[in-house]
Amino acid sequence: xxxxxxxxxxxxxxxxxxxxxxxxxxxxxxxxxxxxxxxxxxxxxxxxxxxxxxxxxxxxxxxxxxxxxxxxxxxxxxxxxxxxxxxxxxxxxxxxxxxxxxxxxxxxxxxxxxxxxxxxxxxxxxxxxxxxxxxxxxxxxxxxxxxxxxxxxxxxxxxxxxxxxxxxxxxxxxxxxxxxxxxxxxxxxxxxxxxxxxxxxxxxxxxxxxxxxxxxxxxxxxxxxxxxxxxxxxxxxxxxxxxxxxx
Length: 247
What we know:
The chain is mostly helical. It has one domain. 86% of the residues lie in helices and 0% in strands. It is built from nine helices and no strands. α4 packs parallel to α9 and α8 packs antiparallel against α9. The protein is rod-shaped. The N and C termini lie far apart (112 Å). The N terminus is likely disordered. It is a multi-pass membrane protein. Pfam families: MotA_ExbB (PF01618). Its main location: membrane. This is Outer membrane transport energization protein ExbB. Belongs to the exbB/tolQ family.
């Protein structure tokens, strides 16, 4: 019986071609790429560029934060010792040697303003206020440096799933077009469009999930650094006030 059916298929090439058309396409990355339409390829290219951008931001922020944390740990006890001995110039030199430290950048601004504003005599209220404003300006600048790139990471995390969803819609539309063109509803007619839709959806999620997770992680780091800078600024102002009372 089976042999008879095979004989009929060989005898009628049109029937064999029909079954070949119904064969499902390959699902390797290259096969999926070749089966995609131009619009779906554009979606994949956009998502790929977004993934490279987010990866670059992740690496950059990780290295920046790690260096800031390391140098701040070395800077804090040294500058505290110099200020305890009233060695203002030595404290500024310590800060200059730790330029990647977020604490050093803030404290340096306050120390330099305090030194430049004063005339070597009694410490005035205006001198302390000027140092306080310098600390606040420096904090704002350092905060902006710490958040550099995080806005783009948040945008990628929120938009990548929707870009992938757009690719899904395109893939489903292509599947229906193939059904209309081939006048058949077999799996082979819609496999290309469905695979195209699923690939873009998955790619969008792959790009978005790490971006959202790392954005939240780095945002928490920035908030922790802000607290450290606020505490350092407050302690430095307290130091200036105490120095003024001693004089």
